[in-house]
Amino acid sequence: MGxxxxxxxxxxITNNKLVEHLSIRYGRKLASKFIAGDDLEEAMNRTExxxxxxxxxxxxxLGEGIRDLKEAEGYRDEYLKIVREIAxxxxxxxxxxxxxxxxxSLDKEQCHANIRAVVSEAKYxxxxxxxxxxxxxYTQATIDLVRxxxxxxxxxxxxxxxxxxxxxxxxxxxxxxxxxxxxxxKGAYKEPPEVAYQSAGQVLNxxxxxxxxxxxxxxxxxxxxxxxxxxxxxxxxxxANNISKDAFEFQMLYxxxxxxxxxxxxxxxxxxxxxxxxTMWYPYYTRRLAEKPANLMLVLKNVLK
Length: 305
Fold this sequence. Notes:
Blueprint: H1 3-14, H2 17-26, H3 28-31, H4 40-52, E1 56-61, H5 69-89, E2 93-97, H6 108-124, E3 129-131, H7 139-151, E4 157-162, H8 168-177, E5 182-185, H9 200-216, E6 221-224, H10 228-240, E7 248-253, H11 258-266, E8 270-277, H12 282-291, H13 293-304
Parallel strand pairs: 1-2, 1-8, 2-3, 3-4, 4-5, 5-6, 6-7, 7-8
């Protein structure tokens, strides 16, 4: 089964309500490989451990697709807590949040106000905030949010561009002109051919093109991938073009290729681990399984044990 077909098939299966119910009931122990814990204290402990290995962190309080703005306020308050805890404990970390957690699908202005509160608090402590990119109904709205925050001198905020989208090359070029800090990823949602490349080869080629554009223009960039093809391309491109190891960072997910993360850090590269925590783990977990068969095989081995 091709990588693109595998991902689309697994996302379809895991979106089934019965599968979701059974997974939530029986799968929490398995999901713990990818989740740092249920609460902030556990996540901060993991952060300190990773910092001890020379690995930076981005903290993510799990959640998306809220039903009312009261929930959005709860996420806002939790993120304010995260920012203050990072500053208090002086760990090397920033934060990542999903705009739909903050009300993007319900009220764009209130969403902006909620996120601005977090970005403002973070700016005071010199902490960076990443607006994660969700599926395509929210792509433009997320980019608009970042631009609006930048216009209000909130330059400690950036976003994510997904290499599998047809529009991504133009988005990268435009946001690069505006000096927006970007994380580049392959993309983990189920998207139709009209908006996204479907073959792994096309996605990889576009990913490389986006990396080259950013690094060639001297723009600090997070390259988020566990794929050695992407990692090696970045290392080789940087070396061939005399680009400093401080000009970019590699990002990987908590629980995946932790040995590789430590190895890259030992080689002098900047490495950041995406550390999620919280009880709303199912959507995040299923996207991790859908990324490649090896992740699913790891879980199945644990089930058989």
